[in-house]
Each structure stands twice: as C-alpha cells, then as structure tokens.
From TrEMBL:
Alphabetical list of InterPro entries matching this protein: P-loop_NTPase, Ser/Thr_deHydtase_PyrdxlP-BS, Shikimate/glucono_kinase, Shikimate_kinase/TSH1, Thr_synth_N, Thr_synth_N_sf, Thr_synthase-like, TrpB-like_PALP_sf
Gene that produces this protein: Thnsl1
Cofactor(s) named in the record: pyridoxal 5'-phosphate
Protein name from the UniProt record: THNS1 protein
GO CC annotations on file: cytoplasm
Length: 736
C-alpha cells in the first residue's frame, strides 16, 4: 500500500563520530555555521558524495536558494533549466515548450535529466521535473530531495510579477492555480525533506535547507525517554536510545512510564503556521507530522500516503475536522465525522498504519486497548482496515467495562469486530481495564512467555502510545487556522479551547499544539461528576482516596486515573523523571500526591477546570437544540456548560465536540424530552433521524448497527488471569 522509493537517512552521527566540540557548535547555530557545514559534509560520505536537490513549484526560488546554499558549502551548483536543458537543446526552455507541446516536453525534459551525473553538488530542478518518474528516480538516487513548499497564493503573485510564460500546462482557459495544485501530488511523492517558505528571504530559506538536511542526516537528537527516567539513569548512549519506531512498537516504557520526546516538540514560526492557513486538513497533517516524525522512522512520502489513506473516504466531511459557529464567541470543533463517530478516529485511522510500518515483519503482534467507550470501536475499525498481509501478523483486542458504556457504544464495538479485531467486556470499570493492561505489559515473565511460546509480542493502542497522541495535535492546530481563514481572528490573536477530559490525552494534544506555536491562551478542562481533574487543577492535590467511579451519561470521561496527565507533569517538571516517578509511587501507595507550589502555578497558567452535573448536561443539550436546532452529544454538553461558567468571553473559545450524539441516543432523547424511548439501539437512531436533526444521524454508526444487530461478544471477570486467557485464545486462533 505504501511503496518506498527513498534515499534513506542513516543514524550515523553520534558522539563517537563527532567530537563534543563539533557537536556543540553544529547544534548551537554559531556564526561559523558555514565552515562547520563544509567540514561536516566533506567528512561524511553519506552526504558529502550526495547532492542536495531542490524541488518545488515554479517561482519557489529554487535557483536563487541553490546558489546561496552552494556558496555556503563551497560546492558546485547546477541549475537544470540553464545548465542541463538549454545546454542539451541549444534553445531556451520556453522555445522548446512552444516547439513540442506539453506532453512531449515532459518526456524530452525527463530524458535530459536522465543524463545528469553529479555528486557533492546543489541541484535546482525545474518545476515540472517531478512529473517524470524515471528521471526523478535517477536523480533521487544521487542525493536528498528538498521540497521548497511555498503557499500557492505567494507563488501566484510571484509568477504574475515575473510574467512567466513557460509553465507546462499553461494555456488559455487553464487556471494557473489548478496547475500548481495538480503538481503538489508529485512534490509530495518525491521529497525527502520539506522546507516551509513563508515570506522568508532567500538567505533565510537557504539556512532552513541546511538545517533540514542536517536534521535529515542526524536522527540521534530525536529520541524518546520515559516520563519516569532519572536524569542520572544507568542507560545511556545509542544502545539505549528509543526512536519513534521503537515507542510505537513498545507503547509503554519498561519502568511503567510513558514515552515522550527527549528534546521536546518542534516549534513552527508564525510565518510557517500562516503558510498553512489555505492548506487542507490533510496537507496540514502531513506538514505537522513530518516535523514530529523523523524520516529515518517513516519517510515523508510514505507518511503522506498513510495520512491520505487515513483521512480519505473514511471521513464523511471533506473538511475532516470542520469548525462551526455555535453561539456568541463559542465555536464547535466537530471531531465526529470519522467512521466510528468520535475524536478517537483521528488517531486510530493513522496509528495502525504507522504501527504496521514500524514493527518488524518477523514477529506477530497483538495490540491491546482499554476503552471507556469510544476507543474500542475506533481501534477495532482502524486495525481492521490494514492491508491483508498486515492483518495476518497484527491483531487487536479491546477491553471495555461491560456495564460502563452506552448500549450503542457496546453495539458498535461488537459490530466492529473482524477476523483480526476482537472486543471483550470486563465486569468492572475503565480504570480497572486500563490498570490491568499496564500490569500485563510490565509483567516480563508473561510477555516473554507469549514471545517464546507463540512468537507474539504485545503492543498498546491507548493514548499511552505516543502514536495515538501525536495525530491529535493536528486538529487543534487546524481549528485555529480555520478561524483565521474564516476571518474570525487574525493570526496571533489568542483563543481558548474547552475539552471534555478524562484520560487527559485530548487536552494534552492542545497543550502540545500551544508549545508548537499555536496561540492558545487557556485550555479549559471539563469534567463530569468524576471530577478528580477539576479538584487537581484547582488545588494541586490528586486524591483518589474515598473516590468511586460514578457511571454518567458521558461515559468516555468516566475516568479517575488520567494516564496522560503524567506526560504533562513531566513537561512542567522540565523532564524531571525522578519527581514524576515519586509522584506516581505516592499515588499507588497512598492514593494521592500533591504538586509543589511552583508546579501548581505553571499548571494553572495553562489550564483551568470545572465540572458539570448530569442535570446541567441534559439541560445544555435541550437549550442548545431549542435555540439553534443543533444537537450536542453528552460530552460536548459537559464542555459547553463548563465553558459558559469559566470562559471570560474576551476571545473565542473552541469547544471540542468529541463524539456524535448518535452514540448516546437514550440520553439525547431524554434531554429533548421525547417520551418514547425504545430499547433497541437501531430503533433509537431511527427515531432521532425522524426529527431531521442537525447534524444528521451518523452514517457509519447506522450502517454498523444495521449489519450487526444480533452479534454477540465475550465477557470476562475482573481478574488479570481472565484477561490473559482471552489474550492467549485470540493469539492461538489468529496466529497459529
């Protein structure tokens, strides 16, 4: 599904191959950067004998930038237009295009490029070179292809000013914008590195190119550590390094902590963010995820194909995550247009493909997930969409609280089961399911037994897995950019976000988007009656003593132990894994921990919190429907209530609508004061549909329930050994 034609970066640059002095200079951007680059490139054959190949649309500045890069590196510069095509043809490019026409020109241009033989040079391609596959394969083998990604609006202005008349495809009645849009698919196919060029000078773009190539060749700085890792730990050096592909595979760190990027997430400049204002959701996702995933783990073209597949026909709305005005300064970020009708689809349509790419083909994998409702069907659906060869070696099992999800959520999970995707009800609550899975992962005797006996390794699909969390950053960034695009705000103006929160993953993704440069002022943490997070944010005390889980109408946030809070505490503590470890040891042993004053002040600088009763949740659904005709789901209603109470209305607030109301039909019918509530989930949805609601009843949910009205599922006791028995049964039936 995802072919690779790729010059692979190598993990070669370490402290053993660069002196500590050189390392310090290279990564602190000194005045003598040019000299260091010359030395570094010339001393490493993997780059020194390769070319830096600049690719992009006409008007991207490839020729000018190429000359500057060549000057900085003191290496030859080849401009394909001037030095290859016109030399070969003995005529200008515009004359050749006029002489032979569009299709023949591409062929002639490709043939000329096939004759190019160069090393250690900077090569500036033409805008149409990437449309000829054979010549691009040839030139790609000789170096690193850098895509100068310039916003289409900027290119159009430049070309108009330059009065360019030699673009392949240019003709009366053919819009130049359409030509540029068509070509993007070829740039995405061939690039190794993307450089966002957002109003930068040619000199600045050249520096970005050098930085990007440096990153490409050195993945050693993009390692991951456990949130509980001591700064003076015993494991050091490249043998202990964990990369993106490792943490996707392993899920949970061996010490029980969660993996986080050792050097944090990249930050985009204001100009780079603004270059994405006109972009589609898929384009934004590719740019952001390329920044966060090193190409040594997943090459950029492969990542692009994964993203295109994930957010293609599986989503009912072409905008993927549209932002809708609700009332006043409140906007809804609709995250329910995926196949299983919740925000979990945004990660779980991507993560299975990332996982399949990263894991070695020599081993079978069973992916485990605990769910409070929405994750279950999303993880089953996502992994069932893998290609057949991957489904044969990767299976998934979801554990959910048997009596802790809505009837429709349960029916959806049962209906989402496939040959490699099974669901098991557990006679307990979500916290038990999540804790049991963590215990299974950290039981080295058991995981070793599965590997030896069945050749099967375990992996995690909950948001404890970094690949689950990462795609969620995209929609928070995209929502802000949409408000800018709609002229609601100017870029740089702040917004608040309000998120129904249980496991802290979704709100953490918003905090990460803020770190990466999105102007989010406050993250509003909205809880239901299981309000341990509200108390924690207000007091700094995380106290589980005497608390029992309360089943509510918003079951996806019926959680007391918020796993991803650990990642945020590690961030606030500036990577002090020892402190995080101490806090969670106290939680396990004493049932509580308390933040120091300094950390609490940092927390309250980013996050405010409130909670909502069941009565207020239902009243909000009724009120919004009565005034706007729009139906909120129960989780979104919780967020709406909290936003009304806490947000000061001095800036827009984006409320995350995390699930479609169809999943909670009985509660919605009750809120709308519809007397007749039938027990059959499909009948409930048909009744709701008869009211012509906005938005309509979810298409995917209806289809799933129609296909699987009478299907059954497995149930087990709240006992780790019982869960293990189900795990082994699936392994035996699927892999042996």
């Amino acid at each position: 599904m995802f072919p690779i034609v790729q010059y692979q970066p190598l993990r070669l640059i370490t402290k053993t191959t660069l002196s500590s002095t050189c390392l310090k200079l290279v990564f602190s951007r000194p005045v003598a950067l040019t000299q260091i680059w010359k030395s570094w490139l010339s001393s490493h054959s993997v780059v020194g004998n390769k070319n830096i190949i600049l690719m992009g649309p006409p008007g991207a500045g490839k020729t000018t930038v190429g000359r500057i890069v060549g000057q900085k590196l003191d290496c030859p510069v080849i401009d394909v237009d001037d030095d290859v095509l016109e030399t070969t043809w003995n005529m200008s490019v515009s004359e050749k295009l006029q002489d032979v026409g569009n299709e023949q020109f591409l062929e002639e241009e490709g043939k000329a490029l096939l004759t190019l033989s160069a090393s250690g040079s900077v090569i500036s391609l033409t805008g149409s070179n990437p449309m000829h596959a054979a010549s691009m394969r040839h030139v790609k083998q000789s170096g690193v292809v850098v895509y100068l990604d310039v916003p289409t609006a900027v290119i159009l202005r430049r070309l108009q000013a330059m009065k360019v008349d030699r673009i392949v495809g240019q003709a009366p009645g053919v819009a130049l914008r359409d030509i540029l849009q068509f070509r993007k698919q070829f740039y995405r196919r061939w690039h190794d590195i993307r450089v966002l060029c957002a109003g930068d000078t040619a000199e600045a773009v050249a520096d970005k190119v050098l930085d990007a190539v440096k990153r490409y060749q050195n993945s050693e700085l993009e390692t991951f550590i456990s949130t509980r890792a001591s700064r003076s730990g015993n494991c050091k050096g490249k043998d202990c390094a964990k990369y993106f592909s490792d943490v996707v595979t392993e899920g949970l760190a061996p010490d029980g902590g969660l993996f986080v990027p050792e050097n944090g997430l990249p930050k985009l400049s204001a100009g780079e963010w603004q270059s994405l204002i006109e972009a589609t959701y898929v384009e934004r996702a590719q740019v952001i995820l390329e920044k966060c995933i090193h190409p040594a783990d997943i090459p950029a073209p492969t990542l692009g194909e994964i993203i295109g597949t994930a957010y293609g026909e599986n989503f009912a709305c072409s905008k993927i995550a549209p932002v809708r005005h609700l009332t006043g300064n409140q906007f809804l970020l609709e995250l329910f247009h995926g196949p299983t009708a919740s925000f979990k689809d945004f990660a779980l349509q991507v993560m299975p493909h990332l996982f399949a790419y990263c894991v070695p083909s020599s081993c079978n994998y069973l992916v485990l997930a605990a769910t409070s409702g929405d994750t279950g069907s999303a993880v089953l659906d996502g992994f069932s969409r893998l290609r057949d060869a991957d489904k044969q070696r990767i299976a998934v099992m979801s554990f959910f609280p048997e009596d802790g999800v809505s009837h429709i959520q349960k029916a959806q999970m049962i209906g989402s089961q496939k040959e490699n995707a099974r669901s098991v009800g557990v006679k307990s609550d979500f916290d038990y399911c999540q804790t049991a899975i963590k215990q299974i992962f950290t039981d080295s005797d058991y995981t070793g037994f599965l590997t030896v006996e069945y050749g099967t390794a375990l992996a995690a699909a909950n948001s404890i897995n970094w690949a689950r969390l990462l795609p969620q950053i995209v929609y928070h960034a995209s929502a802000y950019l949409d408000l800018v695009h709609q002229d609601i705000i100017a870029f740089g103006s702040p917004v608040d976000v309000c998120i129904p929160t249980g496991n802290f993953g979704n709100i953490l993704a918003a905090l990460y988007a803020k770190m990466m440069g999105i102007p989010i002022r406050k993250c509003v943490c909205a809880s239901n009656e299981n309000n341990v997070l509200t108390d924690f944010v207000r007091t700094g005390v995380y106290d589980l003593r005497g608390r029992t889980l309360i089943p509510t109408l918003s079951p996806a946030i019926d959680i007391l132990k918020s796993s991803n809070l650990e990642r945020y505490l590690h961030l606030m503590a500036r990577g002090d894994g020892q402190l995080v470890s101490q806090l969670y040891s106290q939680l396990e042993e004493q049932g509580r921990f308390q933040l120091q004053k300094e950390l609490l002040e940092k927390l309250q600088g980013d996050v405010v919190a409130g909670w909502c009763s069941e009565e207020d949740c239902l009243a909000a659904i009724h009120s919004v429907y009565s005034t706007t005709g729009y139906i909120l789901d129960t989780h979104t209603a919780v967020a709406k209530v909290v936003a009304d109470r806490l947000q000061d209305r001095t800036c827009p607030v984006i409320i995350s609508s995390t699930a479609h109301y169809s999943k909670f039909a009985p509660a919605i019918l009750r809120a709308l004061r519809i007397a007749e509530i039938k027990q059959n989930p499909l009948s409930q949805l048909r009744l709701l549909s008869s009211y012509s609601p906005l938005p309509p009843v979810h298409w995917g949910l209806l289809e799933t329930l129609k296909r699987n009205e009478n299907e059954d599922h497995e149930v087990c006791a709240a006992d780790t050994s019982a869960l293990m028995s189900h795990i082994e049964a699936l392994i035996q039936s699927h892999f042996t």
